[in-house]
Description:
alpha/beta, three-stranded antiparallel sheet, 2 domains
Amino acid sequence: MLTPESRLTDFPSLGEMTYLNTAAESLPPLAVREAVNTYLDHKSLGMRGRDFFFAEYEKCQARAAGFLEKTPEEISFCSCASEAYNLLASALDLQAADEVVITDLDFPSGATPWLSTPGQPAVRLWKNTAGVLDLDDLQPLLNENTKLVQVSQVSFLTGYRIDWEPFRNLVRSLAPNAVLSVDVTQCFGRVVLDCLDADIIISSTYKWLLGIHGGCVVAVSQASAERLTTRVGGWYHLANAFDDDRFSRVEPIAGAASYAVGMPNFAAIYALNASLNYLGTVGIAEIAQHADAVVAMLHAGLKELGIATMSPPQPGNASGIVSFQHTRDAEIHAALLAENIHVMRQAGRLRIAIHGYNQREDIERLLGVLRTVLS
């Protein structure tokens, strides 16, 4: 996918380390650095720079819309996934008679807003079984009172990827009143998404999308726009922000636009537009094909060492993330760092994340250290 030369040109820091931690922080390509510098050049123009800012915003909307098979009007940006989910909570205005389904493989930003909403809806937990989210366990949690089903297409914890179509069909059948919300933070930019018919799609931008902090993509389908319009103050998302009646009522723009409540983080927008352009030039399908083979190599190596992953490498459910737990996790992590190999260690879990800029040689180095420590 990337030649050794273009890989180091686009990601020069890879010449100094083996980086397997994109699920925490990505390495932005050189084009993103250049885009942020362009933003600073435009910012230095003062008020005249705003002409460039809003033009870049519209370009980024259109580019993101192309990836998510939406119109630009169905795309918006806020600062992070946590903000997006709290804004979604304001839109849903859930009450005690309502029910929400979340999973125990989800990130806190998608799982916790429903636990703190004033209406105190009933929150049902879809628990994994041996690292798998089984639809048989979901079925009894769904009913006509279910107003939201929130999942991550790929789990930050284990890398498990939901088999979207049967999951979606079950939710639509048994919970016809439910909003289907999906966090694609741990897969957008790395896998070919098949969850594009969700009611709302949310993704941070500083991981697999190769952007920087301070950005989040929000996609709301036109069919769900009225139902998912936020109920918060601000100005950028308001149709009447400067009208004569602005002190007596609030009129949000419906749908995705209502999630951009204040002045956009234009630095993150410039970075995202550049990273999406880069990903589009390389090709998401090409990234997936290349990186999936590297992931398969890792699974085979771990199996040879007798290491079981937290989610099994089932066909169709693999992703860029492979996690495992080990009693010697601290020793393994220290040995990896000593060789300048970067993975995530947290609560006894080691998480390895493989993007398009990773190579088979990265996994050979990782497995070599594991063999030495565990021999």
